[in-house]
Structures are given as structure tokens and as C-alpha cells.
Amino acid sequence: MTVTSPPASLPNTTPPDPTPPVSATALPPIRRWERIGLVVLLIGTAAAYLWNITVNAMGNGFYAAAAWSGSRDWKAVLFGSLDPGNFITVDKPPVSQWVMGLSGQLFGFSSASMLIPQALMAVATVALMYGAVTRATASRGAGLLAGAVFAVTPVVALMFRFNNPDAVMVLLMTAGAYCTIRALRQASVRWLMLAGVALGFAFLAKMLEGLMVLPALGIAYLIVAPTALRTRLWHLLAAAGALIVSSGWFVLLTMLWPESSRPYLAGSTNNTFMDLVLGYNGFARFLGRNHKGGNRFELPPGYEMPHNAGPGQGFGGFGSGPDRLFTGEIGYEISWLLPAAILAFVLVLAARWRAPRTDLVRGAALTFGLWLIIDGVAFSTMKGGMHAYYTLAIGPAVAGMFALGVHEMWLRRDSAFGRIGSAALILTAGIWAFVVLQRNSDWQPWLRWTILVLSVLAAVGLLIASLPAAGRRRARDRVTSVLVVAGVLAGLGGSTAYAVTTLPQSHTGGSPTVGPARKQKPGPENEAQQEIRRFMSGDFAEPRLVGMLSDTTTRWSAAVDRSSTAATLELASRTPVIAIGGFTSDDPVPTLDQFQELVRTHQVTYYLAQEVKLPDSWRVPTRGNAPAAEPDDELWRPVGHKDIGDWVAEHYQAVHIGNVAVYDLTASPS
Q: For residue 99, what is the DSSP state?
């Protein structure tokens, strides 16, 4: 019996001894209410996530431009190119671009064709969560709870309606966990190899982040699989081989394909995939040593950027340490049930301590619990830039572990341990929801107090029911059932409310956030950040400039520093644009010689350079008796490849459109 069944249908008999391993129990036939519950869960998720999905327009323009490119060119699909001319890729592997690009080729590129596949991935992930927990516990009610918890997690509601690669990565990580749990029941090497294949493609979605679940899956299989140790080790080697094959073919493709006829692999220093994996998107990012994009922010003499005004605020600006996952925007996105999930891991391991090694519930707890702990520690200690939405990667672990904990305590509801454990889970979830909602105290203040009161009442009731003289057994069991259901629903209240209010909001840009729209509090730091965002965004979508690019006939309409700017121009003009220096302006392409060759062979029409008048507030103040620095009155051009900019300015005449200098490279050079 599970926590999601209606209280009226609860049996009055004592539940069976839950200690024997679930792996010995066949999955019972599905009952009518369970079938209805699954249909409601999947259709409800689809309806909620697909509803008005185009409110997010192009989402992250960086990836939207790549999706548009993939809708235009097969090589752009294959490599994940930012532009259909295949000059440079996005700085991630291409699995997400395969999905969105192929959708664009089939249905035409649009916001809907790009984002609808993301929402459908949410439905698939919910189904996998249901399947994994159902098979681990032999309880479809527990599976329904796991799927529902995942669906009402705010970061899930945010990112499965967005066009970043995180959605497909998490779908594949969850598929790996599902296949591992299937493998645990009968030590199936086939299912374990399928888990390896899923993680191989997760690697091709977001590199090492897609593999962070790997240790948890390997440890769970090594401990729990019902076969000899030697066989378990061979199975793990076979799964590793499947992972290598499913991911390695693309790595090999990038090595064998001539560099001259494929796009540059953005983010790498030497145009190789593994440099990107181990460097910019791997250990260098984790250690805080990846590219900084510093060249484009070297201000002229006499100016200094205000403290905390630079780019990257909100990208790594979450501090570090154990509290990172519980505070700030990260707390809103993922932390609602995180403390309860950690407690559930401890409770399940304690409850199954005497169970045989092959106990499937313990295997599932190791799968989700170690996934949560390993990834959580990695995010907490990460030194490099981190977006709050990265924590989507632990969404399935939180949902699965919480559902396992509730189910295990439900099975033991006739014992003091089960009732006290249930009370602890409910109280932990309810109190933490209150704390998180308190941080946005102006929004629906009644909600946090309702959650707190219901959680405390349910927990106290369960503690009273665990006392020896708490009444007759039959009545006590009925009261326990009602209290558990009410307490779990209350604990989910905060997460659900924030997910629901996230869905209708418009989310665009590189750092979307969850929950209701929040006004930024006035202050020098926020004002400085808004100021730099305004002038760094430029006016590249000015209609006259867009029209000029749309009328070009060369392979690339223009060249401009930074992928984000190139993406903006591509989406506005529907023409290919060269992103000089890639995402951070640090990529070593094109060199000056390469750019001159592109100009000489008439492959690019315009060179664009933003011109910025720096704010007076950024002037360097006088320090002590030292004379004040004399600022440069010339306009600042935030470019990374200064050699290209200087060469163009020396040989071509600029036309000024807004704050953009436009150089016609088809004119005769001076």
C-alpha cells in the first residue's frame, strides 16, 4: 500500500514485514486507481509544461541560434554549429541541438518547434521516475509520488520549457538510473549496458556533468546485484564499454573529420573535443580556471568597473560551501525537499540495515541517495562559474529519494520507527518550505503559515500515535494514514506553488529564474549590474542594421565579437554571422590571417564593432594626494580580438548605426 492511495481505501490489516528484499517480489498487477493516477500524472505534466510554452520566445538566444542553424544545415545539426555557415559551434556537445535542429527541419524553425521537444522530455523523465521507483519498491503509489515530486520541482518547471541542454542531459541521466534499477533485480548485463548507453549520450549532451551520476550507479550495482562479485565486475566493464562506444564515436568523428571542413569546437584551445571536456567545460570550470573573457573588459585608462558589476554576477555568484544548495536562487530552484531527501536516505538505509545484500530498495536508495550526495558535493565545492539551474541535475535524485523514504516509512507505519520517521520527513519538508517561502515574504504569506501548521500538526499526530497507549490499533492505523497523506501534501506545497507560478512567466536570456517576478532591490551593486548589462547588450537588433544583413549574399553576412551577439543578429536577420572568439571572446579563431582570407575571398560582408560611452560613475577616483587619472574620451570598443578590429578600422570606413560601427568589407580597402 502506498501513500498516494485515498485514505478511505486503506486496509485495516497490519502491513506485511517489509524487511525481505523487494527483489524477490514480482510487480503486482496494476489496479484501476493506479492506472488512472499514471494517466493523470503524465497528461497533467504534458498539459502544464506545453501550455503557452512560446511565452519563452527564443529562450536562450545562444542555443536558439544553433537550433535555427540546425534547421538550415545538416552539418550544423551534426556538430551543433552556432551558424549555418559552420564557422564555430556552441560551447557544448550537440545532443540537444540534434533534437531541436531536427524538429526545426521537420516542422520549420520557431519557438514552438524548438521548445515543445523540451516539454515532452519532462513527460518522459516523469515516466522514467515512475518506472524506476515502482520497480524498486513494487509499489506503483511510490512511483507516482516520485514522478509527481519531480514534476512540481521549480527548476524542472523552468528548464524543461527552456532550450538549454540540461533537459536532455537529465532525461538521459534518469534513463541511466532506470536501467540500473532494472539491472539490479536479476543482475542483467543487458540493462546495465543500456544504462551505459544512456550515460554516453548524456556525456554528449553536457560532457562531464552528464556523468556525475555514474559513481552512484556503479556502486549500487556492485553492492546489490544478485550475482558473484567477479560477474558484477565484468558487467560493469561491459557497461563502461557501452558508454565509451555510445559517446566515443562522436569524439572520434571530430578527430577524423578534416578541421578545414568542420566548425571550430568553441571553448577549446586547440579545436579538439577532449580539450573542451577536460578544460573549459570540465576540471578548469570546476576549479575556477576556465576562460574569463577578460580581454573584452579591459577598460581604457582612467576608468574602473564597479565592484560586483562585471559579467558573471549570477553566474557563479552564489558563494561556495555546504549552504550553496540551500540559499539564494539555488534555494528557490531545488532545495524545497532537499533536506527531507537527505533524511530519507538515512532512514531507508537504517530501515533496510538487516536486509540481504541484494535488497532492491536499498539498491534504489544507493542509486538516488549517492547521486544526490555526489552531485550535491560537486556543486557545493565548484569554484568556477555556476548557474542556479545546473542543480536540475539532482532533481531526479531528490524526487526519487524522497519517495523511497515516504514509502519505507509507510510500510513500517505500525511501528514507532515508521511513525517517528514519517513525522521527521514531514516536519523537515514543511519547516524548510516555510524557511524558503519566508525569504520572499511578500508573496502569498498565508501559504507558508498553512504549510507550517499542517506539517507540525501531522508530525505531532504521528508522534502521539507512536506512543504505546495511543488507542486501538485499527483506529490508530486510520489516523496514521490520514496524517501521512496530509503531511506529505503539505510538504509539497511550497515546491508546487513555486513551480506553478514559474510556468506562466516569460524566461529568456542566460540565467532564467523561478517563481513569481521579483523586483530587484535598489542599491549600487544592482544598479551597476543593470548598467553593464544595458551597454554590453548593445543595439545590434536595430532595424536598419538587421535589414542590411538580410540583404547580403555572402556565406556570412557579418562578423562580430562574442557568440551571444552573433546569435542575436542571426535570429533577427536569419543570416549566418561569424562569432569572433566564441562565447567568451577568448577562442583563438579566427586568427588575423584567417579573417583576412575570409575578406579576400568575399565570404563575409560586414564587420561590426560596438562603441560604448563609459559612465562617468566609472571614472577612477583620486586616491590620497595622487592626481586623478585622465580618462580617455574616445568610445570604448569591448572586443577580444583587438588585432582584427584594428586591422579593419585601419583599412575600411565605418558607418555608425546606433552604437554600432559597421564596416563594409566588400568595399575597396584603403
A: H
Q: Are 425 and 351 in contact (CB under 8 A)?
A: no
Find out whether 49 and 507 touch, Cβ atoms under 8 Å.
no
Q: What is the three-class DSSP state of 560?
A: strand
Q: What global pTM score does this model have?
A: 0.91
Distance, in Å, from the CA atom of 504 to the CA atom of 79, rounded to the nearest integer, reads 33
- Summarize the confidence of residues 360-364 as an average pLDDT: 97
Alpha-helix residue ranges (DSSP H) falling in 91-188: 95-107, 111-137, 140-151, 154-159, 166-186
Average pLDDT over residues 25-51: 93
Q: Cis link prior to 590 (omega < 30° from 0)?
A: yes
pLDDT of residue 386: 84
Tell me the three cell numbers of residue 128. Answer: 522514467
Confirm if 410 and 351 have CB atoms less than 8 A apart. no
Pairing of strands 604-610, 660-664: antiparallel
- Asked if 154 contacts 492 with a C-beta cutoff of 8 angstroms, the reply is no
Least trusted range by pLDDT, from 49-58, 283-292, 557-566, 591-600: 283-292
Other CB atoms within 10 A of residue 636 CB: 18
- Tell me, rounded to whole angstroms, the distance of Cα 304 from its chain centroid: 34
Joined grid coordinates for residue 631: 580618462
Point out the least confidently predicted range of 208-212, 280-284, 458-462, 591-595.
280-284
CA distance 409 to 235: 33
- Alpha carbon separation from 337 to 128, 248, 507, 620 (Å, rounded): 20, 36, 24, 47
Closest CA to 497 of 516, 517, 520, 484: 516
48: which residues sit within 8 A by CB, 6+ positions away? 151, 157, 503
Task: Indicate the residue type of 109.
Answer: F
Provide the pairing of β-strand 556-561 with 577-580. Answer: parallel
CA dist 52 and 506 (Å) reads 10
3-class secondary structure, 486: helix
SS3 456: helix
Rounded Cα distance, 40 and 22, in Å: 27
Print the SS3 string covering 571-599.
HHHCCCEEEECCCCCCCCCCCHHHHHHHH
C-alpha cell recorded at residue 476: 490508530
Number of other residues whose CB lies within 10 A of the CB of residue 543: 9
